[in-house]
Hints:
Layout: E1 4-6, H1 7-43, H2 50-91, E2 96-98, H3 99-130, H4 137-176, H5 202-214, H6 218-225, H7 228-236, H8 238-251, H9 259-277, H10 289-292, H11 294-310, H12 315-343, H13 352-358, H14 363-405, H15 410-421, H16 424-442, H17 444-451, H18 457-467, H19 478-481, H20 490-511, H21 513-521, H22 524-530, H23 537-546
Antiparallel strand pairs: 1-2
Helix pairs in contact: 1-2, 2-4, 3-4, 5-8, 8-9, 9-14, 11-12, 11-14, 12-14, 12-22, 14-15, 14-17, 15-16, 16-20, 17-18, 20-21
Amino acid sequence: MGLIYDAADSNNLKTALTGNLTSALSVLQATENASRRLVEALSGGELSGKGYSAAQLVLTRDIIPQITAARDEIDLIQNDLTKYTYEDGKVNRFGVLKEDELNAQLTATRAQRDLTESLKEMNSALVTAVNAVLPGTAEALGAVNSQLDLVLTQLESDLRDLTDRLDALRGFHQGTTGLFHKTVSKGKGVDMFALKEAKPDPKKDAQYLTELLKGMTPEQRSAYLNSPQFREWASKHWEGAKVAMDAAADSGLIAVKSPEYAHFLTGYWNHKALLKAGIDPATWDLRRGTEANWETIKKVYDYYGRLYLKNPDLQWAGMANMIGPSFAGGFRDLAMLRSILKSGVQPPLIPDNVWAVLKQFSDEELRFYETTLLGMQKEIFLDQARQHEAFLGGGMKEIERLRASGAIDQKTEIAWGQIASGDPAQVSQGNGYLLEREQNEIINDNYDAMRNHAPTGGAMTQLITLIGAASIPGAKTFPEVFSEGNISVKEDRWSLIKEDTLPVYRELLKNQPEKVREIIESDFTNRTEGMRIPNRLPEIVGRLRQGFTGKEKP
């Protein structure tokens, strides 16, 4: 988690410290004055006797030096408060600053700037290439670039503001780190940014959860295991919770087939997958769009690639990595499409009939399609990653636990048994079923939601069908295989996969495994750029000329 600064909290801290220091100094001054008067009375003979002599010794040897030391420590705190107030003055005007959010915004804004600059460059290149054939192109593209210049000016201003905020936040952290730590010798310093929890102890955690569950009624156990409190605790003590939950299920303390056990196993194995992928679930927010989530998008496909490279029997993972650039390119093309539509100027190479369809989409509708597509990637990961991690972490025993709990069905368990067999034909068949599950069970409802989204769902899914890319070498796009249809329809989509995409991939695995490894090991972003619309314009225009009907099959 990154740095967080809140001006209101900081103001409260300064006010509280100032008040406490004033009170402490007042009390300390009164105590010091009383002590010195008492010492003077004892030294002057006003008070005499053995008891008073002992009191004088305590005052001069212990109490007054402690008062002096306390005053020195208060002075140190006051000095630190002065330094803190100085550093705070540089950042307070920004209000609330969150480093993770600022970094995400900075990444997204930079990507939008780069995209806008790419559009300008593409327009300039098109002027030279097509102006002789399409008169008026230079004027139209010049108008577009003028608007893009205005967008770039605003984006550069936004980048400067975000950079200023990050610099202020980090400067404040650097300038205040260590303040208040050197004071109050028997106390603890103030850390404005981080509190670290104790390291989990799996053995003690398992014992704690086991004893807790045993002391509950069945109804109480069910309620607790389905509660946010348990999910919060388990998220910080995964290993101990896994031992306890497995033992509870094996002993009958909790039902093996139950939502609470299924949810826990899913959470446990997805936690493993997220750690391996380097993904922070707290930042995987679909609402923030493609560019803000770009690093996570890449990490998902890189994770799949590593699974395959480590174990080539995990063919589904290899295929997911190889086909990922076509989807990721689509994510980014939607952002480009939003920019083009906001300009209101029809690019010369987009035919009138296609432009007429594009103009139907509002920015909010495009955001819906973008978020839905991003959600499909996330749903696939959260379904498949847990299974792969369970298989790698515990073999068929853990896959059987997932099935017994209800987290996966029997067909999926059988598929993993085929993969575990090591027999090439069985391995291929098992991975094929994982692909079928992905397409026909996990994300089919997302495709349906897009197609049925009024009033533009039919047009959008037909557009996706028309311009979709094939990033597996040798595989064909939908219009290259079928003269009509809609890739969002389950039967049409599975027909393409079954008749072309999957057989082509299997042939690559069989005859060119080194090529598969080479592709998966290559840079994902570079592969994605090759699937982008600007890099495939001639291909897409060619499809339009070949007469793909864009109609759904009867």
